[in-house]
Please model this.
Amino acid sequence: MHKLLNEIPKAWSAERRPTKEALENTELLLGRLKPLALLPLEADIGYWPTVALIWFDSPVQVQGFDFGYEIGVYPPFGSNFDYEIYEFHNGALKELDQVVTKLSLLMARDYDL
Model:
């Protein structure tokens, strides 16, 4: 059922896993990211029972929730840019295009890491 998510290394345990809805919403997003060559390098458990999508070459992360997504830009210590959060919590299907567009723009930025 989670075909694309199964292709990504996961850093969560069997005891602490994301919810079924978070997994399904993450799979929807991954289906849109694969043709853009934007699949993450790892998935982890988020701060809720969410899926955290991680790119090691970028400060951008995505949280897949039961009800939508959050995109976070987490600057490394000592960097010259600010922490940013973009929330998309009005339903995963309704906001999928907006999430993909915003993520594409953020991933294309030069963060001078």
